[in-house]
Amino acid sequence: MAMDVVDHEIRGAEMQFVEVELDPGEAAIGEAGSMMFMEPGIEMDTVFGDGSQQQGGIFGKLLGAGKRLITGESLFTTVYTNQGQGKRRVAFAAPYPGKILPMDLKQLGGTLMCQKDSFLCAARGVSLGIGFQKRLGAGFFGGEGFILQKLEGDGMAFVHAGGTVVRRELKAGESLMVDTGCVVAFTSGVDFDIQYVGKIKTALFGGEGLFLAKLSGPGQIWLQSLPFSRLASRIFAAAPQTPGGGGREEGGLLNGVAAGGVGGLLGSVLGGDE
Prior knowledge:
Helices cover about 20% and strands about 40% of the residues. It is an alpha+beta fold.
C-alpha cells in the first residue's frame, strides 16, 4: 500500500501532542484513545486490526488484529481520512509526561523496533507488526516482555517516551548496558540481549533487578529516563494504605469515586470512613 506523506508539528513541552496535516485523500492511523482534536472534513473510521491491512481481505484483517492482540494493544485502530477540499489537521496527544519522537522510517532503513506501548500514530501505509526477541532470555527475564512492536514502511511514525529522551548512535562492536524499561526503540541492525548483573548482593539490594539489556551496534537507539512502569510503581508505593484498604481520608475519597462515582464521593464526604 502506498505511503501517505504527511506534514507534522509537535507542540508542548512536558505534555506534548502532535498535529498531523493531511492533504485531500490522505489519512493517518492512530492508537485507540490517542486523538486530541480534528478539523471539519476529517472522517474517523474504526477498523479491525492494523489499518495498513485493509486491502488484504478478511485474512489480512485477522492477521493484523492478531499481531496487535499479541503485543497487548487494542484489536482496533482508528483511521483519520481527509475527505475535504483543502488541508486539514488532526492531533494526537501523549498519554503521560514525556516526548513525542518523529520517526522517518525511510531514513531508518524501513524498520523500527519499539516498546509495545510507545506507538502513538503514523501515516497511512505504515505497518504495525510484532518482533520476537532473538533469545529466549530476553523474553523471560527482560522485564518488558518477549514481544516488541515492529513498525515497517517508508512513512512517518510517531512514538512516545517518558521523561527525557536521548538518542545514541552505536558503532559496530560498541555496546551499552541499559535498564530494560528505559529502552524506547532501536533500528533493525541493533542486537538486543539480556545480561545478568553478576552479583547477588547487587541484584537483591541495588534496586535495579537481576538483568539489564545489552544493546550492541551498529544502529541507533532511543532511551527514556522515566518508563511508565517505574512511574506507576512509585505512585503505587507512595499511596497511603490501611489494613481495610480504605487508605486515609484522601484514599477514602478516591475509593468512593471509584466505587460509586459522584454518589460514592458524596457518601465519603458526608459520612466519612467507618
